[in-house]
Write a structure and sequence with these properties.
Elements (H helix, E strand, L loop, with lengths): L3 H25 L4 E12 L3 E12 L8 H10 L10 E6 L2 E6 L5 E7 L6 E9 L7 E9 L6 E5 L13 H10 L11 H11 L6 E8 L3 H10 L7 E4 L13 H15 L4 E7 L4 H11 L4 E7 L6 H16 L4 E4 L2 H10 L5 H13 L1
């Protein structure tokens, strides 16, 4: 973005930050509101980890009500946050500490050098210590990827593991705002497919959920993954709102391809399976990754979202043919069983696991 649009993005961003500061200051003066940390799952290696969080102002006690109106208010609240900029934050992982401040949108993005952490999940402590106020500590987690892992899995979320209907605006709005989180429906067989791929690598394969959904939804989606038995993994999401180069959020293709390429650099021994859907821009993002890093992707699985225009279908098939020439299969799949059968052919999982996925599809 350049010229007048870039100027407009910067102006809107500055206005948003000024408004956020006023709202945050007003809420913190109320006895029933306080600053806290919303932790996000971090990830890294045995010697270097990256953890993220956000400092926001929230009610000390949530207001619990039932009924459709409460569901609507809860849905809206996920997109409305009173973030706190410039807040002093201390992050601790094992015996290492990072000290810094939340950025203009309230985010904390800390990289820590650590000493030979064992593979698996580790505790993270976030501490706020505003002068004159008692400190606030919040626990998070960080995944240390097993150095013996050979497979990495990247998955989109909306319409890839959870029915959202992003290609149909009315359905997407209804699902997001009017459907209680406990009632949201997973894609049949997706959890079984991901579990099978993890087990196929001896239980070591990390799963990263890369989505252009808002960071505000992290807690909701984390509970969804647990509720429907998806492998737990770090989520990498986006900040919705004006930024230095955009008015709404970073473009899907740029964000996803950049994020996945960074994960590949962080874990150079892994080869990857990328899973998405045809409804948005997953095929374009994953194709960009394959072009940039040939030989690093076992397969791309694209769930076909219907209805789909003939032009869109033709474009996705053209991308698939291009990737095939580059040596990476991109399959348009009707269900998770088709992906499992193909992955079995690549030696990524065994026949019994394919049967597990088929049962998951049938049960859905």
């Amino acid at each position: 973005m350049s010229g007048p649009r870039a100027w407009l993005a910067r102006a809107v961003t500055a206005a948003e930050h000024a408004l956020d500061r006023r709202i945050g200051a007003a809420l913190r003066n109320r006895s029933d509101w306080a600053a806290t940390v919303v932790p996000y799952h971090g990830h890294g290696t045995s010697t270097l980890v990256r953890v993220r969080a956000r400092v926001v102002v929230r009610r000390r006690r949530s207001l619990r009500r039932g009924g459709p109106a409460a569901t609507l208010l809860t849905g809206l609240s996920h997109y409305l946050s009173a973030e706190v900029a410039g807040e002093p934050v201390t992050v601790r992982v094992a015996d290492q500490e990072w000290r810094g401040h939340s950025d203009a949108e309230g985010y904390v993005d800390a990289t820590l050098q650590v000493s030979d952490l064992f593979p698996g999940w580790h505790d993270v402590t976030f501490r706020l210590a505003e002068p004159g106020e008692p400190s606030t500590e919040v626990a998070g987690r960080v995944l240390v990827v097993d150095p013996e892992a050979r497979l990495g899995l990247v998955s989109d979320m909306d319409d890839t593991i959870i029915h959202t209907g992003l290609t149909r605006l009315r359905e997407a709005v209804r699902t997001t705002l009017l459907v209680a989180e406990e009632e949201r429906v997973p894609i049949a067989g997706a959890a079984e497919l991901y579990a099978a791929l993890v087990v196929g690598d001896g239980g070591r394969a990390p799963v990263f959920y890369v989505s252009t959904g808002a960071w505000n939804l992290h807690s909701v989606l984390e509970r969804f993954l647990i509720r429907h038995r998806f492998p737990t993994g770090p989520m990498v999401m986006t900040d919705w709102g004006p930024g230095g180069r955009w008015l709404f959020r970073e473009g899907s293709v740029d964000f996803k391809s950049r994020t996945i390429i960074a994960l590949m650099a962080e874990h150079p021994r892994l080869r990857w399976v990328l899973v998405g859907d045809s409804g948005q821009h997953d095929p374009e993002a994953y194709a960009a990754v394959v072009r940039a890093r040939p030989g690093r992707v076992h397969a791309v699985y694209i769930r076909e979202v219907l209805p789909q225009s003939p032009l869109r279908g033709h474009h996705v098939r053209t991308l698939a043919a291009e990737l095939e020439r580059l040596g990476t299969p991109m399959l348009l799949i009707g269900d998770s069983a088709a992906a499992a059968e193909h992955a079995h052919g690549l030696g990524l999982l065994d026949a019994a696991q394919v049967d597990d996925v088929r049962r998951g599809v049938a049960a859905g």
